[in-house]
Design brief:
By secondary structure, this protein is an all-alpha fold. It is built from eight helices and no strands. The longest helix has about 30 residues. The protein is elongated and about 60 Å long.
Length: about 220
């Protein structure tokens, strides 16, 4: 496990402050910010849950731009230093696995933490069921992975902006209206399977791009 984490951190441009931001400040700022919006500014809890899902999609795609952004693009040289090491392919595989796991845990922790912060002292009609919360978590993960499947193949920042705009609005919509849906038990299962499928597809495409880069002239 430690080796996987080290492999992941090897792709971070600045390790010290990024660890503080990604593992501590990022969750706390969103959770505390949504608590403030709900309890101090009077935003409806469902609106705040929509913001939670939308913020996560946007932050994760922006964060990825500084870690793996454009790594599979044919216009980048980010794979060159990996090809100089016999462990380059293993390093890339390990880091992509760790990145996906970290992202899923971050999304789950932040949405659950945000919900607990928002829902405390609220009437019962504002409460989400377990299935509704799972839909928020898994759909946010799915949308984020779908966005990364695109952005990692482009180095143009405007592609990121367009993807964030579209998927952010989709995530906000899910977060707001999930509380009104009668969700069947298979829905969260389908969402997580789709999310995992997109994650694996993206990983395979990136590794394939690295293998092809050995033959690029």
């Amino acid at each position: 496990m430690r080796q996987y984490i080290r492999s992941y951190h090897a792709f971070w441009p600045v390790k010290t402050w990024m660890k503080l931001c990604v593992y501590l400040l990022y969750p706390l700022v969103i959770i505390m910010g949504l608590y403030f919006l709900s309890h101090k500014l009077g935003y409806y809890p469902v609106i705040c849950m929509g913001f939670a899902c939308g913020f996560l999609v946007a932050v994760e795609i922006i964060l990825d731009y500084f870690v793996f952004g454009g790594i599979a693009s044919r216009e980048t040289n980010r794979l060159e230093y990996l090809k100089t090491s016999v462990r380059g392919m293993h390093l890339l595989k390990s880091s992509l696995i760790t990145d996906a796991a970290r992202r899923f845990l971050s999304i789950a922790i932040i949405i659950i933490g945000s919900y607990l912060a928002i829902a405390c002292r609220q009437p019962m009609e504002y409460r989400y069921t377990l299935l509704q919360l799972l839909v928020c978590i898994f759909s946010t993960y799915l949308l984020t992975e779908a966005g990364l499947l695109l952005t990692r193949f482009f180095i143009n920042w405007w592609v990121n902006i367009a993807v964030i705009y579209i998927l952010n609005n989709a995530a906000v919509t899910v977060g707001i209206f999930a509380s009104t849906w009668n969700i069947p038990i298979w829905a969260p299962i389908l969402l997580i399977l789709l999310g995992m499928g997109i994650t694996l597809t993206g990983r395979r495409l990136i590794l394939k791009r690295m293998e092809e880069s050995y033959y690029d002239r």
